[in-house]
Amino acid sequence: MTLDTLSGWARRLQTREISSRELTELYLGRIERLDSGINSFVTVTPEQALAAADAADQRLAKGERAPLLGLPVAQKDIFCTQGLRTSCGSKMLDSFVAPYDATVVERMNAAGAVMLGKTNMDEFAMGSSNETSHYGPVRNPWDPERVPGGSSGGSAAAVAARLVPAATGTDTGGSIRQPAAFCGVTGLKPTYGRVSRYGMIAFASSLDQGGPMAASAEDCALVLNAIAGFDPRDSTSLQRPDEDFTAGLDRDLKGLRIGLPREYFGDGLHPEVRRTVQDALAVLRERGAEPVEISLPNSGLSVPAYYVVAPAECSSNLARYDGVRYGHRCADPRDLMDLYTRSRAEGFGAEVKRRIMIGTYVLSAGYYDAYYLKAQKVRRLIAEDFRRAFDKVDVIAGPTSPELPFRLGEKSADPISMYLSDIYTIAANLAGLPGLSMPAGTVGSLPVGLQLVGNYFDEARLLNVAHQFQQETGWHQRMPAAFA
Amino acid sequence: MSLTSEEVRRIAHLARLAVDDREAEDFAAALSDIFDFVEALNRADIEGVEAMAHPLDAEQRLRPDQVTEPDQRDLFQAIAPAVEGGVYLVPRVIE
Asked: How far apart are the first and last CA of chain B?
């Protein structure tokens, strides 16, 4: 059977052309056969999946409808899954069995989704290459010598290799969009507060946001319908009327004003990535969109501001791992301090420790004003840049990443060069805006992503623009030959 | 900016992270580079700018002061490294 998209499978399940069990077996078989080469899953749950598929088939037989009924999905291993190991890519949580479901998981289950397993990720979502995972790096299905991006690299690689039609990701500084770009899939980071953070293991709470990753914008809309919405258990969750994100996909693009920030096309952008993105923008123009040159003058400050704010919040959030209540505990502690310091030193990897140290320093007595407060002020400057831009344009477009997927190990020794790979994505997190990456073309065999950033709550618009692009082009349908 | 190994040890203590000599040196080098990098923030004109705590300036929601969570002590302690009689076990803290 030829592989279909999430939306395509949904239609075929409705017509009973295929059962959820058959569909689930198809994808479980692909994972078993093909995942060893890319390491995109850390846990596969075939028994649980087949039981969920059978339950979905019974509901389908009764004529029930639910947004994801019978559809196979994967959860990034940052989302708590009750009764199942939730590792967050860390040795610290290698034996952590979550006592409850994250809201995202609960909602997808309630929508009838069939979870196939948990996907690999950078440790505690800190990384842009998926090399910091305790369970080994994920490899890019387009070239196994290259990284899939991070931190949601497992989800991106699994969707790209068609081991699952859709997966969840989380995005603190680009962790949905950059791996989506590197693997040639579509990924959406919603507006901050749109998707509940309850049960999503915290990294930087004022930036973290979960969202869908799938082959197409239409598929992302379907998943977003299931996971978005107010949750009283998340104190920053926003109360908004329910929205059907698939409803506006077919709107044409006539008169759409697309802002092109000159800062996103300057020095440091790989020339072939630039050309590919410009070709993609020409397609949008042919469909009626009007390019408008804009400026986001404080763009250059986004990565520095992020590497104060994110580590500060990370050091606070990760203080909970104390070797006492859950997670890794060292052997034979001498005293309580030894228990804390060795459990944490043994449980965390190098990049996580580095960020805890930065965050602890910037929050320590006497440094708060010089670092955290200043960064939070710069953050408002960045948000103001966007506010002014959205007076003139409907969406902002540019490259998702300045470069092509890099080789494993290429940036491991140089944290700052790794940090700079998120140079175009971080600002949307600092401002809390929605952002999407979609396949825009290729350089050789390697995918290039086009990023769209929208105004607050304008996810439907981003999905509409991406869907219109995907009606005209076939980049999102390509799959790596080794996984055909 | 250049951090010394002693400063690194002080931060590591605050962060409750055990570090050996080699790690302290590695951290000193890596953290110094990163702090040099974030020095760029000093270029920003932030005079009179209000710090941004929430992207949408949302306010903290309040709820009625009612008990909404059931007691799940057994469930939550089932994943603890060491418990006995409903309490978490740690090395002796009072001699």
From this structure: 43
CA contacts within 13 A on the Cβ side of A166:
30
Q: What is the DSSP string of B28-75?
A: HHHHHHHHHHHGGGGGS--TTPPPPSSTT-PPPP---S---S---HHH
Tokens encoding A322: 């104390």
**Position A87: which residue type?**
S
User: Which residues 40-99 on chain A approach chain B with CB closer than 8 angstroms?
Assistant: 96-97, 99
DSSP A402: S
Query: What confidence tens digit (pLDDT) does each residue in A410-459 have?
Result: 998 898 999 998 999 999 999 999 999 999 999 999 999 999 999 999 99
Per the residue annotation, which of A151, A196, A315, A421 is the catalytic one? A151
Q: Between the CA of residue A201 and those of A89, A96, A104, A125, A182, what are the distances in Å? A: 11, 12, 12, 9, 24
Q: Are A455 and A433 in contact (CB under 8 A)?
A: yes
Which residues in A lie closer than 8 A to residue B76 (C-beta atoms)? 99, 325-326
CB count in 10 Å sphere of residue B6: 10
The CA distance from B94 to the nearest CA of chain A, in Å, is 10
Tell me the nearest-neighbour CA distance from A9 into chain B, angstroms: 37
- Is the CB of B37 less than 8 angstroms away from the CB of A307? yes
In this structure, are residues A436 and A217 in contact, taking their beta carbons and an 8 Å threshold?
yes
- Counting every residue written for chain A, the total comes to 484
**In Å, what is the CA distance from B74 to each residue of A79, A285, B84, B91?**
22, 60, 11, 21
Distance CA A90, CA A203 (A): 13
Residue in chain B nearest A323 by alpha carbon: B81
Q: Are A172 and A125 in contact (CB under 8 A)?
A: yes
Structure confidence by residue, pLDDT tens digits, A140-191:
999 999 999 999 999 999 999 999 999 999 999 999 999 999 999 999 999 9
Query: Does the structure show a pLDDT above 90 at B57?
Result: no
Which residue in chain B is spatially nearest to A326 when comparing CA positions?
B80
For residues A364 and A361, give the distance between their C-alpha atoms in angstroms, rounded to a whole number: 5
A151 is catalytic: yes
Catalytic residue among A7, A20, A76, A189: A76
Q: Does the active-site annotation cover A95?
A: no
* Assessment of whether the complete model's pTM goes beyond 0.95: yes
- How many C-beta neighbours within 10 Å does residue B14 have? 16
Give which of A360, A369, A418 to mutate to test B binding, by max B Cβ within 10 Å: A360
Put simply, the answer to whether A381 touches B49 (Cβ < 8 Å) is yes
Please give the C-alpha separations between residue A56 and each of A17, A103, A163, B57, in angstroms, as whole numbers. Answer: 15, 20, 20, 41
CB within 8 Å of A223: residues ≥ 6 apart = A6, A68, A73, A108, A166, A168, A212, A214
CB A315 within 8 A of CB A353: no
Helical segments of A364-479, H only:
374-392, 415-419, 426-431, 459-472
